[in-house]
Design brief:
It is a single chain. The protein is α+β, with helices and mostly antiparallel strands. The longest helix has 15 residues. The chain folds into 4 domains: 69 residues, Alpha-Beta Plaits, CATH 3.30.70; 114 residues, Sulfite Reductase Hemoprotein, domain 1 (2-Layer Sandwich), CATH 3.30.413.10; 75 residues, Sulfite Reductase Hemoprotein, domain 2 (Alpha-Beta Complex), CATH 3.90.480.10; 100 residues, Sulfite Reductase Hemoprotein, domain 1 (2-Layer Sandwich). The N and C termini lie far apart (56 Å). The protein is globular and about 60 Å long. Helices cover 27% and strands 23% of the residues. It comes from Pseudomonas putida.
């Protein structure tokens, strides 16, 4: 498939895609959707070369385990053609937007997994791309498939989620609408009915939703969940789930070396500071994957990357190589816990230079001996984080932020704790809070 000759939006949405370059303050943005976050070393090199030749050299790992190239200039067609030639595009132009299926970055590798989700994922993606009806879904409509892995992002809300569990020796898929796998399931289906459930949910959504109802939560505001489940049960055998709920593991498994299900190999996780790579970093990581691993990389919803299938005896060498590239491989480094949007250097809506402020805050917290999870957002849209972070800084002016703490009873960022703080004041407040016995 060659690049289209015009770059008018393929549909009315502000979301970038591979074929839709969206303008920003720092140039065009191209989003490359990766199946399960996976990309070959050869494809990673193609992305790096495209960013260097046709853009400003900024590559971002996104919170949906995709990649973005920023700062694209006038050679949009050449950039798109180079990415399509590397096999990074959709099966057809109309289906690029709907390839929103998130897996564990350790799918097929994780020692705790109940199923390898990749075959079912490939079947779902083939249906999404091959059935013209599903091309009408919003570019933000998203599905999650959880195989029970220890390494899995369970806090991002999805329009439909499916999660593997065992009941009386049978593998089944719990599912829910407009939420996360840690929510109470709406029901479950047999593993072999997983694809049928996805198709039934999407068809029902498209049948019932008005044009302005682009997400499942919009439909649920008008239709009772019980009503939707009854209609799904007419298509797929659905059972209630009363005795199971997905457990959440808070350990940091996307950083450093971790054993895989197969004996003798591990994946090595590294964090590009604030999710940003340059061509040298990406090409260097690709080279390490080709030399020591299986020639593939996987990006994660934590805006990091994994090198899978590294022989255990080579993990230390791979970590040294990644660190020499400027990637972070240790969870006690404060910058590994920082999330920041593009900021005022690249986005006209941002009220602060969030990435620079995040680096400053990380340095202050590192001196205090803390590695705390903090999200810096230049405006209320929260583009950098799909979940609510434990602490969120919302910019109100250059270098000044309102501080929120996550609160399950509060929507959005949580509970407002303090207003108009400098980065130094934020660091001092977080330090005092972490030392308080009330927060221990």
């Amino acid at each position: 498939m060659s690049a289209p000759k015009t770059f008018n939006p393929l549909r009315p949405t502000a979301c970038p895609g591979l074929l839709r370059i969206v303008r920003a303050l720092d140039g065009g943005i191209c989003r490359i959707k990766l199946t399960g976050g996976a990309i070959s070393a050869r494809q990673a090199v193609a992305v790096a070369q495209a960013a260097e030749r046709y853009a400003g050299g900024v590559i971002e790992a996104t919170n949906r385990a995709n990649l973005q190239i920023r700062g694209i200039g006038s050679e949009q067609s050449a950039l798109i053609d180079s990415l399509l030639a590397a096999g990074l595009g959709p099966r057809n132009a109309a289906s690029d937007d709907v390839r929103n299926l998130m897996l564990s970055p350790a799918a097929g590798l994780d020692r705790q997994m109940l199923i390898d989700t990749r075959p079912l994922a490939e079947r779902i993606l083939a249906t999404l791309q091959g059935d013209d009806r599903f091309h009408d879904l919003s570019a933000k409509f998203a599905v999650q498939l959880d195989g029970g892995e220890a390494l899995n992002m369970l806090e991002h809300p999805h329009d439909l989620w499916l999660s593997a569990f065992v009941r009386e020796g049978e593998l089944r898929l719990a599912f829910g609408l407009a939420g996360c796998p840690t929510d109470t399931p709406a029901g479950s289906v047999a593993l072999e009915d997983g694809h049928g459930l996805v198709v039934a949910v999407l068809e029902l959504f498209l049948k019932l939703a008005r044009p302005e109802q682009t997400r499942m939560r919009h439909l649920l505001a008008e239709y009772a969940l019980e009503n939707l489940l009854a209609r799904l049960a007419e298509r797929v055998p659905v059972q209630a789930v009363t005795d199971w709920r997905r457990a959440s593991d808070s350990s940091v498994l996307h950083i450093g070396a971790h054993p895989q299900k197969k004996a003798g190999v591990a994946y090595v996780g590294a964090v590009p500071p604030l999710g940003r790579l340059d061509p040298a970093k990406l090409q260097g990581a690709a080279q390490l994957a080709a030399i020591y691993g299986d020639g593939n990389l996987r990006f994660t919803p934590w805006q990091s990357l994994l090198l899978p299938n590294i022989p255990v005896e080579h993990c230390a060498q791979v970590i040294r190589g990644l660190e020499q590239l400027g990637l972070l491989c240790h969870a006690d480094q404060a910058l590994t816990r920082m999330i920041a949007c593009t900021g005022s250097n690249g986005c006209g809506k941002s009220l602060a230079e969030t990435k620079g402020d995040a680096v400053q805050l990380a340095a202050l917290l590192q001196r205090q001996g803390h590695a705390l999870s903090v999200h810096l957002s230049g405006c209320p849209r929260s583009c950098a984080a799909a979940h609510t972070a434990p602490a969120t800084l919302l910019a109100v002016a250059p270098g000044h932020y309102d501080l929120y703490f996550r609160d399950a009873s509060q929507a959005g960022f949580g509970t407002l704790h303090a207003r108009n703080l400098t980065i130094e004041a934020v660091a001092a407040l977080l330090d005092a809070r972490s030392r308080s016995p009330l927060d221990a």
